[in-house]
Amino acid sequence: MEFMDGTWKKDVCGWEDLMGEGLLNQEAVVEGAVHSIRNMGDVAFVILRRREGLFQTVFENEQVNVSIHELKEAMTVRVRGILCEEERAPHGRELRIRHVDILSCPAGPLPLAIDKWKMNTSLEAKLNYRSLSLRNIQERSKFKIQEALVRAFRDFLYEQGFTEIHTPKIGARGAEGGANMFKLSYFHKPAVLAQSPQFYKQMMVGVFDRVFETGPVFRAEKHNTKRHLNEYTSLDFEMGYIDSFEEIMAMETGFLQYAMEVLKKDYAKELEILKVELPDVSRIPAVRFDKAKELVAGKYNRKIRNPFDLEPEEEALIGQYFKEEYNADFVFVTHYPSKKRPFYAMDDPEDTRYTLSFDLLFHGLEITTGGQRIHDYDALRQKIADRGMEEEGMEQYLDTFKHGMPPHGGLGIGLERLTMQLLGEDNVRETCLFPRDLNRLEP
Q1: φ, ψ (nearest 5 deg) of residue 9
Q2: DSSP bridge partners of 27
Q3: Cα–Cα dist 366/421, whole Å
């Protein structure tokens, strides 16, 4: 009888072993996928792709058990040979092959040239062959950067006393209202896909005080722009016992500062591959919604057409204004008009036309929406009535407030948009593993 003890011994060398001094000029074993082959005649360079990056091996025809012609791109192999120092090789190491074990062989040629440093192909082609295009080193690096953002979000909020929750994505009604909901039949009952975890995370503030979630949200909007997806990943948190909605803005600023440090420390390789210059998040300016519109209208001679919302062009110009005037990559726009915010947004007691809410713009694109919520039961019901809404379907949500809730607020960050702006991409589909939009349901 065998027992698992949580360990598994392998002859294959780890990355630290390959990069260290202990195995130099000794036999080593490496596994990976054949990323590219450069056949020079008597000698060939076989570049292997591993999770850590590219690793160079040298194939000398007379020294190896197989012919170089038997090796193909995308083949997975285990190679044995002598580990040598070579300053011209990636990472300064190479393996001079003596023996090759072929683990798997592709059944056909690759439809994309993934071995090129920068893929010279259309976005549509990259998305159609997504699992293959992501084997390109630059393409997959984008999602290591995205990993860093999610990791930083979790780790930072854990340090701040938040509890991670997981809320349902199928519900009886949406949290935001409106018609932009995907409807489905749930055992012969009408249901919708969640637009937001808003109701649930507010309810859980009454349990844990501070909660967060990373998960998908769904918006059935028939848009076809470079900044919208119908399914995206939202980084949400909600916190209780706040003094002001600005406390939420301070928490997000702290997260961004933490994230940039994580990127510098643990993702320098990906930052270098993608040539990313990290933004300055030491101080983020904040400006009122109405003031921001006036500043942009004055400096760029632009007429204010919609007094209740920001048009995409206005967001871009606000970003441009604060970059030019304050060298700021981010800007908080606060006090959005009440008529453009959901019913649970708390109105500014000094001017109820506006709310204690904000958006965070990054290089002129909204990546975050947040603010303080109404926590008083009677005030919440009154706001619902004033909007001409019905309480039907919100009984459990309202019951939470009926039995006491602290002052609270929170936000939602669009992960793909944040990644897009950080990397300087111009289409959000570039930073979504498998995008879902008006025309795409596959792969």
Answers
A1: -85, 130
A2: 82
A3: 10
Digit-coded pLDDT (tens) for 300-348: 998 888 888 899 999 999 999 999 999 999 999 999 999 999 999 999 9
Which residue has 């948190």 as its token pair? Answer: 237
CA distance 175 to 58: 58
pLDDT value of position 63: 85
Q: Report yes or no: 287 and 332 within 8 Å, Cβ to Cβ.
A: yes
Residue 176, pLDDT above cutoff 70 = no
Query: Phi and psi dihedrals of 291, rounded to 5?
Result: -65, -40
User: What 3-state class would DSSP assign to 343?
Assistant: coil
DSSP β-bridge partners for residue 36: 47
- Cβ density class 97-134: b for 16+ within 10 Å, e for less: beebeeeeeeeeeeebebbeeebebeeeebbbbbebbb
Tell me how far apart the alpha carbons of residues 443 and 53 are, in angstroms, rounded to a whole number: 25
How far is the CA of 307 from the CAs of 288, 291, 299, 337, 353, in angstroms? 13, 11, 17, 9, 12
Q: What angle do CA 58, 92, 140 make, to 5 degrees?
A: 85
